[in-house]
Fold this protein.
Amino acid sequence: MEPAAVDVLCKGIGCEIANLNCPGQIVVSGKVTNIELFASLAKERGAKRVLMLDVSGPFHSSLMTPARDKLKDYIDKILIAEPKIPFVSNVDAKVHSDPVKIKENLIAQVNSKTLWEESIRLVAQNNIKTFLEIGPGQVLKGLLKKIDPKLEVKNIGTAQDLQAPAADQCQ
């Protein structure tokens, strides 16, 4: 489904778009019963695929506002300097250098939709074509290939991946 159609359906049943990951992949967040209703209605309205994710919370939704408020208390105490390299926030898919705005976005990302696809497109438009995926799995590699097949992703999933051959490729 198109993001606009997903958004309309969400608003009608108390869900929210949580992630715009890549073309054709939209994650919806909310209470379990609302998500189950969303899934059945989305299928009826022509969604090609609907998967229930096994996650521990309604991430990137207004239901996370209490967690955001607790995190704010901690982030407010942290000194963030102006970054030496561009900082892209997935809250608004923009480059930021103002430490105050960076803090605001770090706090907001807890209960705001993640603009992953738009953020990656912004980075790629600025001639960054190689990305590192650190940790097990290759989820981000799959997303980036759908966003732009020309992007390269180097996976570092184990300590062995940090050895000379893999480390040399990242320089």
Summary: Residues 134 and 152 are 14 Å apart (CA to CA).
